[in-house]
Design brief:
Layout: E1 4-8, E2 12-18, E3 45-48, H1 51-54, E4 56-62, H2 65-75, H3 83-100, E5 119-127, E6 130-137, E7 142-143, E8 149-152, H4 164-176, H5 180-198, E9 207-218, E10 222-234, H6 235-239, H7 243-249, E11 251-253
Antiparallel strand pairs: 1-2, 1-8, 2-9, 3-4, 4-5, 5-6, 6-7, 9-10, 10-11
Helix pairs in contact: 2-3, 4-5
């Protein structure tokens, strides 16, 4: 499991995730030792297909990083705003992955909803009036489209998740400044605080990455999506950065096209 969040506001939507990886032992059911932080681009924040008007961002976590990689690859083939189709695709990946493992699915010990595993993916996508978010679990269950924000806590807090105080502080800061720079600083503040509370040897780490969606006006009363990406960076650096410093760190990305399936 990985600390990650998704937020959808009328002005913008974002996905953010830590890049530190912990893995689940399929035999003993225990969490293995923490691996090094991933520093490459698109470590755990990935684009979804859909082109200039129907694309989105995704992140997630679970107990099987190979399943997660297969899910991301499948999400690139579909438009982000077709959530039901994305859920079908995730469920199919889960079934095929389990079949390849002889029917096994990696599930943490004491999990209250084992049918959802080996994990879930959070996504943000456009609507005619703004943006929305959703969580798709491994079994294809769609959760939380009615919420503007969702949080997956670190392994250490799996029993209770992020506290009300942490969520409330983040949302208050976010609502105060809904610009790209303001959203990045608010998100960085949350990740920096969770990292501090969990400690340097925890599953969180100091690095996080972010994908942001905004609308961009075009001539003739048209629009397209703008994709902005922050590669793995220390959360404290972003929390304290100026607008000019943030502009130099954020990269604009091209949307992924929707791939046509050839039968």
């Amino acid at each position: 499991m990985t600390l990650c969040i998704s937020v959808a506001l009328p002005e913008l939507a974002l996905i953010a995730s830590t890049t530190r990886v912990s893995t689940h032992d399929a035999t003993t059911g225990e969490w293995r030792s923490i691996r090094a932080d991933r520093v490459g681009e698109f470590s755990n924040v990935r684009r979804i297909g859909g082109g200039a008007n129907r694309g989105g961002w995704a992140t997630g976590g679970g107990s099987d990083i190979y399943w997660q990689a297969e899910v991301y690859a499948e999400l690139e083939r579909h438009p982000a705003d077709d959530v039901d189709e994305l859920a079908r695709a995730v469920r199919e990946v889960t079934e095929l992955h389990a079949e390849a493992l002889g029917g096994a699915r990696y599930t943490p010990p004491g999990e209250e909803n084992p049918e959802r595993w080996p994990g879930g993916v959070q996504l943000v996508y456009p609507t005619p009036i703004g943006f929305r978010r959703a969580t798709i679990w491994g079994n294809g269950e769609i959760w939380g489209r009615e919420y503007f924000a969702a949080y997956q806590g670190p392994i250490e807090w799996r029993a209770h998740g992020l506290s009300d105080a942490l969520r409330s502080t983040f949302e208050t800061v976010l609502m105060r400044d809904r610009t790209l720079a303001g959203a990045l600083r608010a998100t960085a503040g949350l990740f920096a605080e969770v990292s501090r509370l969990c400690g340097p040897e925890s599953s969180v780490g100091e690095l996080f990455e972010v994908g942001v969606l905004q609308r961009e006006a075009l001539a003739g009363n048209r629009w397209q999506l703008r994709y902005d990406y922050l590669r793995p960076t220390a959360a404290r650096q972003i929390r304290d950065a100026t607008d000019i410093e943030l502009a130099a760190l954020v990269t604009r990305c091209e949307p992924l096209p929707t791939m046509e399936v050839v039968c």
